[in-house]
């Protein structure tokens, strides 16, 4: 594949000949009256023999405040191909701080192919000839990418290649970016003075569908649904529905609702907006919060039954079984001041006209008490998919056993299977029993602890312990063997 610089070298000799001819004409003929028109014509003549078109993409647009999105997309697009083709590369620390991201160094050229057309990208940096002293000389350089291609590819480049570069470049940037976990809880209440109502940290939760313990069929169903949603842009447009989907995760505490949300975010590679309703002043603020969310994100309302009661008057959040009412309840005054988000405001938030802006958002509610929720809030269309997170079954146990003690099969599995049919234990409790308590503890010991805990949970187990009789003789013999 010929480099653009080689092709330009041969064109250069043609241009040089033309310039010599032009210089001779200028020297010997009184052309001052005709100079303007001749210059124009000589350029036309040169353009007619110069078959290449150039497009320049500058780093900063007019105001120089923000890097142009087109430039960053081209930079990301080229970083993939340049690592294989360019000779001079620049390396910077990537978003994960563990790897280096490569990009083309200045005045370097790479060749690209697109549908049979050959195109050349050059990275150019020019330092302005000003004498001003800058503390950041690097930042002063004006950079741009130059795309050069044969004029016969003009339609292809303008019609589809540039869109391809933008799309691919954005995708590369998306893959490299760090995902974020946003919250609307803020130390200061003066949202008005801040640029955004959300604050964020880097989202780095290790939960995935591989580590999530649930029935494999149910898990696959959720994953298929998520894939259909992520690829559903055209479908949603065709059926006239905003590109968003509601999930309701319900089940007792410790069954993996929050873990499932993290697994979904990791699976889709989306950001999470964790919405704390009790910190939202009113419906207007709720709408603002929604508008400020970006696409490719999950908006989460945890324990929605505790955030808003069915009459629209909010209750303090996080008031769960075992928690004292006083602890969870905010001061009286604050309650009165902030009880302005209504049920209808929340319904609007989920599927009002504003909720369609931006697209590609998943809204997930979690609750421990499905029966407490207003049917309007969870009807299909608002919460399209209802997922029950239930007590640990044998299949879910196998996932936990693999993750926590690294075993796929063990003689104690049969006892666990029988006991799980009888005893309701949450995956959180199963996981806690399986977790080795010291570096020396082996898999049999961890599984044995789980079997004993399950035995204790059997109906009437306490009475049997008191009268000295054993619960499950088979399990007992497997444990001692
Ligand atoms: N299905 C599961 N798969 C894997 N781990 C689980 C699962 N359920 C619970 N766990 C473990 O138990 C812990 C608590 O789970 P999680 O916070 O997801 O429960 P939850 O349903 O959100 O509970 P709550 O209703 O109290 O918010 C997690 O840190 C995780 O390690
Ligand atoms: Mg939770």
From TrEMBL:
Keyword field: ATP-binding, Magnesium, Nucleotide-binding
A single MF term (Gene Ontology): ATP binding
- The keyword Transit peptide belongs to this UniProt entry's keyword annotation: no
Where are the annotated segments for Disordered?
313-337, 461-481
Example of a GO biological process term: response to stress
PROSITE patterns under this entry? AAA (PS00674)
InterPro entries, A to Z: AAA+_ATPase, AAA_N_dom, At3g28540-like_C, ATPase_AAA_core, ATPase_AAA_CS, Mitochondrial_chaperone_BCS1, P-loop_NTPase
Acidic residues: compositionally biased ranges:
469-481
Cofactor(s) required, per the database record: Mg(2+)
Q: Which SMART domains match?
A: AAA
Family per record: Belongs to the AAA ATPase family. BCS1 subfamily.
Q: What is this protein called?
A: ATPase family associated with various cellular activities (AAA)
